């Protein structure tokens, strides 16, 4: 009897060790050329979180980019929930968008090369999510459920300051809701694919059902500006419906011109494929999307936003724009009328430098960090020099004041 008992204990210990080894195999990180690979397995779970749908101190609304106010590297905790919002994309054109964080494109996430990001996303497409109420109210609502307040406390303590705003993005939407967002429900499976991450897609980018949450880590191994988008089929439809945004990964040693930059902006080009629906709302046009015939090609999600709210600078200043062509399907020939790009870093990597460019050609999901010196006081038009796209909306304005 005692013999059998010992055998069962030994068997149990062997299984326990095997289990540990297996766990280790899944979470073993390794370095190549200073970069980190081998992220832990993604977690997928269900909870009753109904707090702020966007959390992250360095997460902002286009065309803003958060300042990175820390030395060395940082471990970020970022939440971007995915949910439906009715939005305006041009005067009189509204549709029910599938969003990351409530607008199209989604928020700009700013990190530094080498930073680690713990990312959380709940699929709330089956829920009315309100993004215009004060964050304190959202926290109160979900009080006692553990998730959100705990998450935000972690955020504040990670930031090392009690007063850090856990979600500047939500505050910015409340102050400037140019899409006139309204909650809506359209239950749908979704996923998140960060081009800035280097991971196994069948694990981290996996599709989650309405009500589910996914959590995974990635390390920003390469500097540059990277699209993120939903990777759930039809990827064309999910991206065109609004599920895309950018991550800006600043190089750890900076760009050569960092000290000389006066204004820094983020501009994203993308297409909508919409047709008039039965009511007042527009809806997705499958044929147009398949045939690459967009109804609107826009900067920062709205046909006139960069004219209604132009970028600003002064004569003689150096302006940096992180420009991303999020597609989903067309190329962009980005140009600023009256300016020449002093520097262009293709994909935003400081080694990919070009100088004196008039136009930057970007395929779908390509980006560039560009700089130009504002020559004199006046208006400068940002434009996709593929004029058919410009006439569908891919233009914006930079208003330059006098030389200081
Ligand atoms: Cu999706």
Index terms:
6-stranded mixed β-sheet; alpha+beta; 19% helix; 9 helices; Immunoglobulin-like; binds copper (II) ion; 5-stranded mixed β-sheet; 404 residues; 2 domains
Write the topology of this structure:
Blueprint: H1 2-27, E1 30-32, E2 35-37, E3 43-46, E4 54-55, E5 59-60, E6 75-80, E7 82-90, E8 93-100, E9 108-112, E10 116-122, H2 135-141, H3 147-159, H4 168-175, E11 182-184, E12 193-194, H5 201-204, E13 212-219, E14 224-229, H6 235-240, E15 244-250, E16 261-272, E17 274-276, E18 282-284, H7 286-290, E19 296-299, H8 305-308, E20 311-314, E21 318-327, E22 332-337, E23 341-346, E24 353-357, E25 359-362, E26 367-373, E27 378-384, H9 387-391, E28 395-401
Parallel strand pairs: 6-10, 9-15, 16-21, 20-28
Antiparallel strand pairs: 1-2, 3-13, 4-6, 5-9, 7-8, 7-11, 10-13, 12-14, 14-15, 16-19, 17-18, 21-26, 22-25, 22-27, 23-24, 23-26, 27-28
The structure holds copper (II) ion.
Copper (II) ion is lined by residues 98, 190, 230, 232, 238, 243.
């Amino acid at each position: 009897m005692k013999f059998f008992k010992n055998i069962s204990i030994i068997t149990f210990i062997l299984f326990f060790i095997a289990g540990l080894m297996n766990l280790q195999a899944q979470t073993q990180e390794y370095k190549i050329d200073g970069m980190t690979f081998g992220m832990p397995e993604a977690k997928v779970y269900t909870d009753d979180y109904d707090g702020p749908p966007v959390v992250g101190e360095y997460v902002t609304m286009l065309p803003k980019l958060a300042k990175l106010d820390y030395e060395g590297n940082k471990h970020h905790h970022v939440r971007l929930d995915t949910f439906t919002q009715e939005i305006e994309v041009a005067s009189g054109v509204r549709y029910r968008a599938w969003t990351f964080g409530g607008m199209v494109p989604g928020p700009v996430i700013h990190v530094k090369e080498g930073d680690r990001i713990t990312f959380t996303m709940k699929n709330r497409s089956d829920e009315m999510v309100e993004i215009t109420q004060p964050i304190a109210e959202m926290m109160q609502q979900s009080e006692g459920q553990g998730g959100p307040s705990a998450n935000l406390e972690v955020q504040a303590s990670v930031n090392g300051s009690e007063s850090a705003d856990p979600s500047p993005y939500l505050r910015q939407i409340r102050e400037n809701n140019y899409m006139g967002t309204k909650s809506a429900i359209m239950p749908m499976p979704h996923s998140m694919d960060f081009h800035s991450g280097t991971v196994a897609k069948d694990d981290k980018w996996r599709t989650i059902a309405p009500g589910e949450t996914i959590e995974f880590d990635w390390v920003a191994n390469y500097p540059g500006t990277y699209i993120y988008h939903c990777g759930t089929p039809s990827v064309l439809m999910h991206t065109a419906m609004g599920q895309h945004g950018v991550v800006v990964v600043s190089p750890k040693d900076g760009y050569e011109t960092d000290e000389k930059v006066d204004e820094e902006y983020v501009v994203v080009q993308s297409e909508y494929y919409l047709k008039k629906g039965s009511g007042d709302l527009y809806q997705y046009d499958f044929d147009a999307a398949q045939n690459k015939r967009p109804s609107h090609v826009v900067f920062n999600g709205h046909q006139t936003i960069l004219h209604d709210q132009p970028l600003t600078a002064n004569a003689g200043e150096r302006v940096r724009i992180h420009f991303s062509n999020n597609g989903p399907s067309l190329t962009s020939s980005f140009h600023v009328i009256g300016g020449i790009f002093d520097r262009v870093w293709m994909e935003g990597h400081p080694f990919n430098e070009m100088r004196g460019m008039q136009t930057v050609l970007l395929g779908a999901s390509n980006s560039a960090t560009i700089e130009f010196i504002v020559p004199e006081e006046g208006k400068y038009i940002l434009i996709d020099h593929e004029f058919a796209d410009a006439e569908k909306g891919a233009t914006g304005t930079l208003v330059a004041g006098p030389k200081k």
